[in-house]
Amino acid sequence: MSTNHGTAPPRLGVGFVGSGFNAGFHMQAFRAVRDGDVRGVWSPDPARAAAAASRARSLDIGEAKPYASIGDLVADPGIDALWITGPNHRRVENIEEIVDALERGRGTLRGIACEKPLARTVAEAKRIVELVRRAGLSHGYLENQLFAPQVQAGHALTWSRGASKCGRPYLARAAEEHSGPHAPWFWRGELQGGGVLNDMMCHSALLVRHLLTQPGAPRSSVRPVRVTAHIASLKWTRPHYASLLAATYGQDVDYTRRPAEDFASLTIEFETDDGHRVIGEATTSWNFVGAGLRLSAELLGPEYSMSWNTLDSGLKVFFSRAVRADAGEDLVEKQNAEVGLMPVVADEAAVYGYENEDRHFVRAFLGKEAPRLTFDDGLEVVQLLMAAYQSAEEGRTLAFPPPGLDQFVPGVARGTWRGAAQ
Amino acid sequence: MSTNHGTAPPRLGVGFVGSGFNAGFHMQAFRAVRDGDVRGVWSPDPARAAAAASRARSLDIGEAKPYASIGDLVADPGIDALWITGPNHRRVENIEEIVDALERGRGTLRGIACEKPLARTVAEAKRIVELVRRAGLSHGYLENQLFAPQVQAGHALTWSRGASKCGRPYLARAAEEHSGPHAPWFWRGELQGGGVLNDMMCHSALLVRHLLTQPGAPRSSVRPVRVTAHIASLKWTRPHYASLLAATYGQDVDYTRRPAEDFASLTIEFETDDGHRVIGEATTSWNFVGAGLRLSAELLGPEYSMSWNTLDSGLKVFFSRAVRADAGEDLVEKQNAEVGLMPVVADEAAVYGYENEDRHFVRAFLGKEAPRLTFDDGLEVVQLLMAAYQSAEEGRTLAFPPPGLDQFVPGVARGTWRGAAQ
Amino acid sequence: MSTNHGTAPPRLGVGFVGSGFNAGFHMQAFRAVRDGDVRGVWSPDPARAAAAASRARSLDIGEAKPYASIGDLVADPGIDALWITGPNHRRVENIEEIVDALERGRGTLRGIACEKPLARTVAEAKRIVELVRRAGLSHGYLENQLFAPQVQAGHALTWSRGASKCGRPYLARAAEEHSGPHAPWFWRGELQGGGVLNDMMCHSALLVRHLLTQPGAPRSSVRPVRVTAHIASLKWTRPHYASLLAATYGQDVDYTRRPAEDFASLTIEFETDDGHRVIGEATTSWNFVGAGLRLSAELLGPEYSMSWNTLDSGLKVFFSRAVRADAGEDLVEKQNAEVGLMPVVADEAAVYGYENEDRHFVRAFLGKEAPRLTFDDGLEVVQLLMAAYQSAEEGRTLAFPPPGLDQFVPGVARGTWRGAAQ
Amino acid sequence: MSTNHGTAPPRLGVGFVGSGFNAGFHMQAFRAVRDGDVRGVWSPDPARAAAAASRARSLDIGEAKPYASIGDLVADPGIDALWITGPNHRRVENIEEIVDALERGRGTLRGIACEKPLARTVAEAKRIVELVRRAGLSHGYLENQLFAPQVQAGHALTWSRGASKCGRPYLARAAEEHSGPHAPWFWRGELQGGGVLNDMMCHSALLVRHLLTQPGAPRSSVRPVRVTAHIASLKWTRPHYASLLAATYGQDVDYTRRPAEDFASLTIEFETDDGHRVIGEATTSWNFVGAGLRLSAELLGPEYSMSWNTLDSGLKVFFSRAVRADAGEDLVEKQNAEVGLMPVVADEAAVYGYENEDRHFVRAFLGKEAPRLTFDDGLEVVQLLMAAYQSAEEGRTLAFPPPGLDQFVPGVARGTWRGAAQ
User: Fold this and answer.
1) Residues A82, A73 contacting (CB under 8 angstroms)
2) Interface contact flag, D339 B341, Cβ < 8 Å
3) Three-class SS of residue C287?
4) Is residue A392 packed enough to be buried (19+ CB in 10 Å), middle (13-18) or exposed (0-12)?
5) Distances (CA, A) of A284 to A231, A295, B37, C133
């Protein structure tokens, strides 16, 4: 093929901290990113780092290599930005290691993007914000759902065709529901920081606020003022399912003694800068047994509404009871059946927002766009989640932010929660 | 930003012949193509060429410039491949001009991708195939629907989970329906080559055959043997609508005297290399007044089925009768209303297959993948379409290929068709 | 409970000829009929007659008794009307027996309602019409789909809100598709009169014409003028499935030697009394393996469209791969799976139109309404079906009615058809 | 037509107290009731009583006459049961009048069926229960949603195919949402007893409990133990909409000074008799602007789920922006648009459960079935609703039943609520 004519424009060299399920989604997504290359992967397990780097090369998204340490990854001058995708309980440690390397003068890192949730407690989140600020790094908060094409289109259309003519929306709903996560640490409150509320309501709590915010307006134009939450363990503390968890993920996942919530609901009342009270309702579940992962949202206003549901897919397959079907995850993430009428989510990395998200943050770290979500947003989400746990524990609505939020650690994380509905 | 480390991999320089609606979709799609840049645009109208080049630059998909002639575009050594997106009646002339430039020693062109249909008659299509073969060009046939993510997933799943266990599918259906094209030449049989059958059944006729073909098997494993078609003018010859056409597109679009069909249906019987007879049904319409463009397909086999419908979207908006709504095309291509419950097709360039298609052909012309569709496929499609017109004109099923196909020109193109249902 | 005050209004006493699957639907439906009682059942099998009568009593739809002969049923003065629901090959014989009884002076029968198709050939249908006319009976043709609530509403709305303002519709589509009938005689061309075309296109062929006809206008305002059809055996002649048929229904169902078509498509061109050509497309299949029976239709006009699909149900259930599921038919008629995401058709007797149909014909025979469908409609349907078989056999479009229609017997019925696609 | 043979079975003579929107649904439904006749109507407005009686006669559901007083209606020996469908603030008075007439020895009334909610406060509900008990009347509580065919089927299938094998469901959701009621009294808290919570959560609160209860088991097997609710006025206190209300319904509907809530959410925790904690979530809204009335529900358990949505209808119509559309309610109850893609709910009286409901209660009062819902159920619903208001006012979760429930009157009813979100 012909050589490039003129000077090639700069490209962002990206390193991955983590090599799990989520990193896989990002790698898939980088196939649709024009100006970023995956050049490195670090994982505590060198074999997994090597496998992930190999996968990146076979996807032709960059000449990725495995690295022996986060420090080495940071030190490589070809790495301009990091994507943090590891488990929650390594978040602070990962970022400390990055900042430590930088402060020892290694590397030329400019930016850091971090998966949700930013941290497990407000204290951790504040520590992380302080670290990146001290290091002078650009930062991006990886909340994919805000970048989902259908969310972007629905948000834009509702405001342009509805709110601009009839007044702002007053109610947003968002839910993320599936039948439970894949890796053991998610199930352990002391590692993950909680149960499904901590794991997934970070998505939905931010999504409702985003939908209620006028495109282009600052997020602060819609401020949380009151918070009410419920948590419960509805499925996984039942003896059969508690046994199943232990058998699958090991004895450390013991839901007879140390359960985490598998259901959470949250009502947030917001004040808007033009004096309205509006409401966001968020729901998350690890006990939803439907076709697979279901992301859904609604936005309602005076003469309009919007609804989004990833399982209302334009593609459906049907297999009869005569088909011998192997269990798999080829129809949809967290798929629960292979027979019957099943929706298919084709191209999940696009549909769930990863393509748009990674394209945006690559461009943001290249200086072509302002980052749409930063660690400050991630911190606010943690504050909301902790207030939600606090509300659920106290059985009442709390003004936001409630006192003591900075020190708060959920009972589920402390191991004191016993699974009764709250 | 840091400079690239090592040698940058080669990138494909792409030039556009044409700057209309379809070119716009491709440009949108190049935002998700890693290793191709749009570097030039030619249009017979210099202002439109300049505008399209400017749009490419603002999309940040390449340093696109307008060119004064196809010859100049070919001559630029930064142009490695061309995307032909102009009107049907310029197809042969465009490609002659390209090949002429090459034969005069200009440029370093390697490949050429051409929009559907490849040509208006079998004679034209054979001429085009001969030209690119003579010039030694790689060629790609741009049939986006085969690259639509939901089509790819549905095809793969149906075969892997269904056909592999219970036998091959026996019936495929595909339809493309909307309320009529945007530019005047589409409506004129003598320019376009026909009506909706020529314009859109190229999609559906190939899609049914593709769905019936085992992934990885050659298209020749499923051979058309009998063809039955109907055409009719159902809406646009009604006086009110004929007037509307003339008022919108000028007096040359005169459906009282020279109509083209706005409805076509086609049944193809195929023989498979393992001895089965299977059926493809294709339908196209310019008189479908629903939310907007509807692409749909089904694939049916002994214990399974698949269905696809682009208007069964996971995103819906609703606006009440109290909303003053401006007509637009922001919800879906060829949108017919702005009020009521409306599906939204977010990210149409991805959903309709343009992103995957352009990514594939860029990689194909870079030598990284074998082209999945070539001009030979485009020729076969034209052969099917001409046999379809012949069947409709004769009111009977034809063995395929029927005699005289190479010389056949549809009555609609010759101006002799008078619009009665056939 | 209090006695009735005043004179009780007359009620229609109904007798059933036949006690199979279809009779079951009608009995279910009579639960919603105010002024008709099921008082008798005849079946060639006395045990089945007794069981059906017992079922009617347990449904509390009348004091039904089994009868030893059709003559006895007719003779009972409490029987005012008969519902003929037996197999196609007994139709003429059943009606001859009824008329014979009447002509011998027995009973006080006023009306007779007959299930679709009215007969297997035009000759048979004409014989039936002649018999009921001679006997002076009121007659009703039981085409349930025209009475389906969603069809009634869709038809009414499309015309009142669309056609009345923008012109009549020009295209109607209807399909009835499932995975094959339940009783052996359906599968045997020589008994049933054909395959799926005869069995089910009677529904769809009439439905498209009905949809294209203005509410209140005579059916003759939309006259069939050209007919094109295809038939094929796509699934059940495959060796595995032919064996399955023989194993299930006995050696008389031998699809290796005497197949019937399991797929049929039909295009009807109509002339309207205001000078338009409009099109009806009908499709039927015994090889559709989806959730279960799928009834669907579309009606398209200049600024509007309507779509109906019984499987797009507002009720869906999901069962995971962990559920041990017994095969059944409790979700939907002709259900093919019990696991996965499945639509449920609740209250099928209402949804498919039986309730409205039976209510209407009871009222018609009571003299409260004019019958909306008579045996004359049934005869016209048979004429269309026979023309369709003729077109498929000849591989060409036929002007309707074609010569020789009165004597025509399909090759499938004669046992000469060998299953190649036509 | 022939006379009845033998003795005609007894029929239930039904009188209507009330002649509004809801009475219209019941009359529509009686067309599908075999053994009950509408024989009388009383309304405070004699003209409306006459019109409703005339409508009943034209529907051929009985020889209905208007009555000058409730006493006269009760006194008619042809009236065996009353259907109470009037406004909430006349409930106690209506029933007192009935019982008074009976106690004065008039009439032969056996049963009384009453629309939801049974009353506006616990005190009123207890008074009503006491009255009917004293009078020795059979009583039926008219909660149509439990009789909706899709709810019945979904409930049955989920338990038979899911819960029986994998354990009982743990989460039920139900919502009733539309854009606001039709008559002035609904909007006035002091008359209606509250806002949307009182008006519509009676449906959803009972529905979630019903879904969580094993078919056949007593409702007491699933006992409410904790209640959390929110109420808010999101739309109708906005100045434009408050003016609209006053303009439409008169100055007594003044939402600037005396608003009622237009949004309510409720979480109920239940204890089951086998020791589980399960959750019901109910949502109601007068500010949902979608196609029209939306009834929806979900039921989730360990390996299964069910979803119901009345707007996911199998019938859809589309009208383009070129159609001049008159506002109407012919597509769906509380319809908000006539253009665009709109779902149609055909046969609403059946779909919403009225047909099954009326058939059941007629049979119950005839002694053929035990009533599935009585005033005791109605009382429990009122207790839950009042606890919900109390929870919303206090901003906390309440153990159920909370102290003081018998005396509780919501602030919205007392006129002290000012519309801030709670």
Assistant:
1) yes
2) no
3) coil
4) buried
5) 10, 10, 42, 67
User: What are the tens digits of pLDDT across the range C87-133?
Assistant: 999 999 999 999 999 999 999 999 999 999 999 999 999 999 999 99
Secondary structure, 3-state, C24-36: HHHHHHHCCCCCE
Tell if the CB–CB gap between B289 and C277 is shorter than 8 Å: no
Mean pLDDT of C46-69: 98
From CA D158, how far away is CA C60, in angstroms rounded?
28
The confidence score (pLDDT) of residue A9 equals: 82
Tell me the three state secondary structure of residue B242: helix
How far apart are the C-alpha atoms of B355 and C118, rounded to whole Å?
54
- C169 preceded by a cis bond (ω within 30 of 0): no
Q: What is the pLDDT of residue C420?
A: 66
C8 — pLDDT class (breaks 50, 70, 90)? confident
Strand partners, C271: C223, C277
Q: How far is CA C191 from CA C188, C379, C404, C412, D340, in A?
A: 6, 19, 22, 10, 48
Q: Subunits that touch chain C (at least 3 Cβ pairs < 8 angstroms)?
A: A, B, D
3-state secondary structure labels for all residues of chain D:
CCCCCCCCCCCEEEEEECCCHHHHHHHHHHCCCCCEEEEEEECCCHHHHHHHHHHHHHCCCCCCEEECCHHHHHHCCCCCEEEECCCHHHHHHHHHHHHHHHHCCCCCCCEEEEECCCCCCHHHHHHHHHHHHHHCCEEEEECHHHHCHHHHHHHHHHHHHHHHHHCCCCEEEEEEECCCCCCHHHHCHHHHCCCHHHHHHHHHHHHHHHHHCCCCCCHHHEEEEEEEEEEECCCCCCHHHHHHHHHHHCCCCCCCCCCCCCEEEEEEEEEECCCCEEEEEEEEECCCCCCCCEEEEEEEECCEEEEEECCCCCEEEEECCCCCCCCCCCCCCCCCCCCEEEECCCCHHHHCCHHHHHHHHHHHHCCCCCCCCCHHHHHHHHHHHHHHHHHHHHCECEECCCCCHHHCCCHHHHCCCCCCCC
What residues of C are in contact with residue D312 (Cβ under 8 Å)?
A: 312-314
Alpha helices in C181-238 (DSSP H): 184-187, 189-192, 196-212
Any bridge partners for residue A37, and if so which? Answer: A13
Transcribe B348-386 into DSSP letters: HHHHTTHHHHHHHHHHHHTTSS--SS-HHHHHHHHHHHH
Residues in chain D: 422
User: What is chain D's alpha carbon radius of gyration, rounded to the nearest angstrom?
Assistant: 21
Q: What is the DSSP letter of B121?
A: S
CA pair distance B165, A324, nearest whole angstrom: 8
Share of chain D above pLDDT 70, in %: 98
Do D277 and A396 count as a contact with CB atoms less than 8 A apart? no
| C-alpha B234, offset from chain centre | 23
Q: Is C389 a residue whose pLDDT tops 80?
A: yes
pTM of the model: 0.97
Q: Give chains near B: 3+ CB pairs under 8 A.
A: A, C, D
- The residue of chain C nearest to residue D80, with distances taken between CA atoms, is C2
Compute the distance between CA of residue D158 and CA of residue B224 in angstroms, rounded to an integer: 47
| CB atoms D240 and A171 under 8 Å | no
- C317 vs D306: CB contact, 8 Å cut-off? yes
Distances (CA, A) of C17 to B218, C27, C116: 56, 12, 14
Coil, strand or helix: which one is C278?
Answer: strand
Q: Report pLDDT for B172.
A: 98
Nearest to C312 among D60, D149, D314 (CB): D314
Question: Radius of gyration over alpha carbons of chain B, in Å?
Answer: 21
CA distance C417 to D406: 79
pLDDT exceeding 90 applies to what percent of chain C? 96
